[in-house]
Each structure stands twice: as structure tokens, then as C-alpha cells.
Amino acid sequence: MPSGTHTLEVWGDLACFTRPEMKVERFSYPVITPSAARGIFDAIYWDGKRDKQGSEYVMRPYFYWQIVRIEALEMPRYIALRRNEVKDKAPADRTIKAWMEGRELPEPIWADGGKDELGTDQKGRTQRQTMALKNVRYRLTARIVPKPGNDWGKLNACFQRRARAGKCFQQPYFGCREFPAFFEYIEDPDTSPAGTARFDQHLGFMLYDVFDLRKEMVRANDEPFITLFDALVRDGVLEVPPFDSDAVKKPGGR
Predict the structure, then answer these.
(1) What is the pTM of this model?
(2) Mapping DSSP to helix (H, G, I), strand (E, B) and coil, where does residue 174 land?
(3) Whose CA is closest to 240, among 253, 226, 227, 252?
(4) Which end of the chain is more exposed for a tag (fewer CB within 10 A), N or C?
(5) What separation in angstroms does the CA of 4 have from each of 21, 47, 144, 152, 250?
(6) Which fold has domain 2-80+131-253?
């Protein structure tokens, strides 16, 4: 674990890291974004405390993952897909809990139907065109940034133990949950170098994350905190600036 960093090798059949400027249709960046990479580390190990404030629950994370480097081990290859997406979403946790306890009757989300089922002539699903990536493989390097009062060594040891054993509390995925990601913990990246895909590309402003990673308290109804950075791939390697740096463009010009 040189310099307190951890390295994972991750791979999968399909991936989609949607460019936000493409709006309705899904068009993937050619490489994984820092937020998607952070999600893979979070799926293996995330820790925090759940508190109740009034009628709502809040999460107090003990740390956040700072992605340091992304190495593309395969050249970007695209595949065109047409996917059915349900327009509605699952209700709030309290409603689902009421269904489970039998206090309310479950209300299904209809994928198809007409007036009798949906109350309108509009169907509950829509077709989207997706330009996804296929046969992806990356090496991701990240480090734990603890919140004040948390034991940095203990957090690192917990992640290392789980990653070595292949444990995760939810299946990691590449941008969409139907695109699962598989991972292996790399003990010493210096002694087991990976052959990166030799390509250079200036990606322009790339999505960094959709959350304020520094927040001490996270609420379910928090507004998105969209950050961007100028991404440049050199010899298949994308160096990711620290979240606190000026290279990361934040809301309000901060």
C-alpha cells in the first residue's frame, strides 16, 4: 500500500459512463469517470453512522475515496444498444417498508399498459439509444481521505481485508447496474505492472462527481453537487486531481 493508496483491477463486458451534455440519449465517455470509479470502491467498503434528525435520517460518512489514477488496459470500443427504461421510480423507503409490513397495499410500477392500468394513454417505459463500451478493463488507484476523528489505519486495513477476499456489500457496476464490474486487489502495482492501452485523447471537461465529498452530513434530499475537470488521457493513463484542488470546477465558481 505505497503512499496509503490502493489499486484494483476491474473488468466487465459492458459499461456506460454517460456524458451529461448528450441529454436524452446515453453516450459513454471513452474511459471510466472518477465518480464511477469511486462507486466501485464504495461498493467494496464504505463506512459511516446513521443518525435521525427530526423525521429524517442522515448519514455521517467516516471518509471518502479520492481517486488518484485511472489506467485503461483495453482500447475504448463502442457498441450500440437500445434499452427499455421505466419512466417511474420506486417510492420512498417509508412507503416500501409499509408495503413489507402489510400496512399498505403495494402499487406496482407498470412497464407497459394503457388507460386501464396506468390511467393514461402513455406507457410506463421508454426506449433509449445507448452508445456503450464493451470488454472494458481498468486499473484504479485511490486513497482514503478520513473525516476528522477517524482512524486512518483502521479504515485502510478494513478495505484491504475485504478487497483481498473479494467481498462487497453490493455488486460493483460500470455506470449502469445492469453492467456488473468484477475486481481483483493488486497487492503491489510496482511489481505487477499492467500494460495500458496506448492512446492519447483530450476529453475536455469530464464529470468528476455529483456529490460534495467533503460534507460531514449527507441527507437523502440534498441537491446534486456537480463538479467537472479538464481530462487528458496520456498513454492510456488519466491522472485525477484532488477534489479540493482548483483543477476541479465546483458550483458557484468555488
Answers:
(1) 0.85
(2) coil
(3) 227
(4) C
(5) 35, 18, 8, 9, 26
(6) Alpha-Beta Plaits (3.30.70)
Task: Show the cell assigned to 74.
Answer: 483495453
pLDDT tens per residue, range 184-200 = 999 888 776 677 888 99
Contact 78, 131 (CB under 8 A): yes
Span 27-40, pLDDT tens digits: 999 999 999 999 99
CA distance 31 to 75: 9
In the chain, what is the straight-line distance between the N-terminal and C-terminal CA atoms, in Å?
A: 32
Among 198, 206, 178, 184, which residue's Cα sits nearest to residue 14?
178
Instruction: At 161, give phi and psi (nearest 5°).
Output: -65, -45
User: What is the C-alpha separation between 25 and 129, in angstroms, rounded?
Assistant: 6
Residue with cell 471518502: 64
Domain with CATH 3.30.70.2660 in the chain: 2-80+131-253
**Residue bearing cell 462527481:** 209
Q: Which residues pair with 71 in a beta bridge?
A: 139, 237
pLDDT on residue 5: 92
- What's the number of CA atoms in the CB half-sphere (13 Å) around residue 33? 28
Sheet architecture: strand order including 218-219 = 48-53, 56-61, 218-219
